[in-house]
Design brief:
The complex is a heterodimer of chains A (111) and B (898). Chain A contains 4 helices and 3 strands. By secondary structure, chain A is α+β, with helices and mostly antiparallel strands. A 3-stranded antiparallel β-sheet of chain A has the order 1-3-2. In chain A, a hairpin with a 5-residue loop joins strand 2 and strand 3. Chain A starts with 10 loop residues before the first helix and ends with a helix. Chain B is an alpha+beta fold. Helix content of chain B is 53%, strand content 16%. In chain B, the strands form 4 sheets. In chain B, strands 1, 2, 4, 5, 6, 7, 8, 9, 10, 12 and 13 form an 11-stranded mixed β-sheet that branches. A 6-stranded mixed barrel of chain B has the order 16-17-22-19-21-20. Chain B has a 4-stranded antiparallel β-sheet with strand order 15-23-14-24. In chain B, helix 27 packs antiparallel against helix 28. Chain B is elongated and about 130 Å long. The chains are: A alpha+beta (111), B alpha+beta (898).
Chain lengths: 111, 898
Amino acid sequence: MSKPSDLVQGTLDLLVLKILALQPLNGWAISQRLKQISGEVLQVSDGSLYPALHKLEQEGWITAEWKPSENNRRAKFYSLTRLGRKHLAKETANWDRLSAAISTIVKLKEA
Amino acid sequence: MRFEHWFYTVPLRIRSLFRRGQADRELREEIRDHLEQQIERNLAGGMPPEEARYSALRSLGGTTQIEEQCREKRRVNYIQDFFQDLRYGLRQLRRSPGFSILAVLCLTLGIGANAAAFSWIEGILLRPFPGVAHQERLVAISGTKFGNDTKNIESGYTNLSWPDWLDFQRSCTLFDSFIVSRIMGTTLSVGERAENVSGSVVSANYFEALGVHPVLGRGFEPAEDFGRNAHPVTVISYWMWQQRFHGDPRVLGRAQLLNAVPHTIIGVAPEGFYGTFVGYPIGFWVPSSMQETFVPGGYKLEDRSGLWIEGYARLKPGVSIEQAQQQISVVAKRLESDYFSTNRGRGVKLFSLAETPFSQAGNLRPTLQITLAVVFLVLLIACANVSSLLLVRSLARRHEMTVRLAVGARRGRLVKQMLTEGLILSTLAAAGGLVLAYWCRNALVTVFSPGAGATVRLRGEMDWRVFVFSASVCVVSTLLFGLVPAMQTSKADLSGALKAESTTALGGRGKSRVRSGLVLAQVSLSFILVVGAVLLLQSLQRIRTADPGFSADNVLASGVNLVSAGYDPQRAKTFQDALIDRVQTLAGVESVALARVRPFSYLPYFSAAIAVDGYTPSPDEQPEAEYNQVGPGYFTTMGIPLLSGREFTRADNESAPLVAIVNEKMVAQYWHGENPVGRRLLVKGQTMRVIGVAKLAKYSSFGEAPRPFFYVPLRQDFSKGLGLMIRTSQDPGTMAAALAHEVRALDPNLAPSEVITMRQYILRSALSSQQIAVTLLTIFGGLALLLAAVGLYGVMSFAVSQSTRELALRMALGARGSEVLRLVMSHGFALTVGGVALGAVAALALTQLIGNLLYKVNPHDPLAFGCAFLVMMIVSLAACFLPAWRASRIDPILALKE
């Protein structure tokens, strides 16, 4: 239920888009992937994942498809759209700029 | 980019809206799928089954909330909520039909009045000419004279001359076309029936420039503008074709007598086209070359000083009226220097159609503007009423709202729900209002009293603009009446509301204060309207008894149209003399006289350039004055006193020296107040001898400023059209019969026009716009009073019903019924007095706006304010009495037991 207030606004979107850029996955697999990659640093609750996925879908950045999963159950697989790819590229660039700027500032402070 | 975005999102939105069930099912399945996989993982990790399940649920959080959050991401929930609210609202309204019907009725009156007023403005001022394309690019053109007060339409604007018109057409590049459209009237006889019909002398480009295509035959050809009386052809209107020619297609080529000249019918205008004159429907059109036959004053197509043209121009797309004005003014200036003798001091002014100075538009505009303001006040009152109805109902629904808040509904959501219910009410009302407006589209004609026999066309136009206007009125009023109750409701105090129903005292806190405020607003708004209505009624009364400067009560007016009958001047003179001699001998007739124009007629006076010995005009001033051609005995008959000199006699004829009688104002302006009798007056280059000075009178309207005016003998400036004035103590009916007999004895083909007293005659023209304003304001003022009374009654009876306990307690403790009655009444009166005080302050500022409609009435007239106060007190007495009486009859024992 808790919102990822500890995550920088929009970061969850960026992470999900990045994960999906590698391969189409279903919701549960995405949540596992998130835990795997970010470990304990970023605490993403499963509860906030689904609204985020639905938002990305409504924006037209990802699209969903019902397919059988590994254990032969029907599951909803998400994949990146062309629009999503563009958006990801833009957001990644933004992120790079932002993080570079922040780390510069942070280092300045320490010096 | 945007498009690609839609490519993905639009199908998703559609799916969310229309396949909601499936979307929800899939959402549930997705969440369940997640849970199951997590449980499997947990089991595989060695957890016991129960623990595996709980751990999975814990890590996910509440599934219902997640589903709701996901649904919110679909971006269509406001639509879904709206439909949900709509269904719910409709159910609520069905449940309390009394409330719903009352609220819808109030709003229907409010919105309907607005829709009707706007449709009148649309049909009379903004787009007055049905069937004409792009009316927003049409402007009306008038001439101006130097030194005239341009605010005074009656004397400030002149017609234009044909040569000037052609020059404007040639030199002005910002204009698409110039259209002559000069109204005139004639008697049209087809078969047995003769009647007065309005026609227009128009330029040959008329139909083409307006984009109006005859349904039968053709419009005019360019050549038909030229040659003195060379093209007797006419295009008739569709309604004329249907009514008088029974839609006969063989009407083309037929000859029709118009003003005694046979005209060939060459075309029929399309259905729904009524010409280009606000007020009168045009029956037929003739080209400019026929000007002499229809416009009094002779042949003017080669005369730059002959002013007869009223007309319009169409601007090129994108050209503003200011740019166009600039260009045409430059051309007018050039014409002034090129043709100094005729054009000195003349200019041109463009008007939007709504300000057209030569049609009824100019007369009606102030009235219609005030009407729009008034109906807006009525709408406010109706909204206040519905608002307070909603507040009462919100008390009844307090329990429902509290429960909804308690189970977690957000306040914004409740406000949305309440506003949706309001929107249902106002949408129903807007539909009803449009029907109302449609019924009323012809209502103005019934209060507009024209001269006898003239057909009037003043019709509201129901086009898409009226619909858009009504829709926005509907939304605005929803916010007006819905927002306060909605906020109040959503503010429900949870803990307080869950306690027992509290009994508020009279005039207590919270909601009842809001309701009192609404009543205050209603009373003050209706007070404003009542003051306005009383002021106009006073003004109407003043006009009815006003002194026009001639005796109006024992002079009868009539006329005989010799122009339509085809008389030549000599025959007309013989006829006129014979008729005067015959009428003179009738029983009861003191005197009788002829005049070209009767005072207060819709016919314009001629105007002429004048020069006076000893008066030097400023360099760009061209002294001018209007004049009338009158017969011998005119001043005696009309009762206009002569201050010096003598009256015209039969000896002042064609062969006698030219003479004139001038009015006081002329003496003051041009002879510096010295007696001018015996002096020279130059009129259009002709020398006249002044033989008398007449007392100032009103010439066209009661509101006009004193102006220079003179009279010349009818015989020395002859006109066939004639008005007949008879000074007599006989009543009009007796005189009509006698007059008809005499006219027929002279020529069996002629009949006199309606015989009425001069008083009736001037009231017709003086009162038309006043009458409309008074009628409308009385109707809407009455409506407002009724609504305010209903509002006051509602508030009072509700307050009484809410405080039954308190009142019963007072009575149990010894208060008498009469004391309770007084208590309740005094509360109602306090509200009324407060409202009146507020209204009076507003009215002091607002009545200024109708100042120009008032004749000799101060907009702050204390009598009017007093009357309005009295009316409000009586109405509030009536509205409060029943609730107060009911309160005084409360049985304390029964009431306290409950």
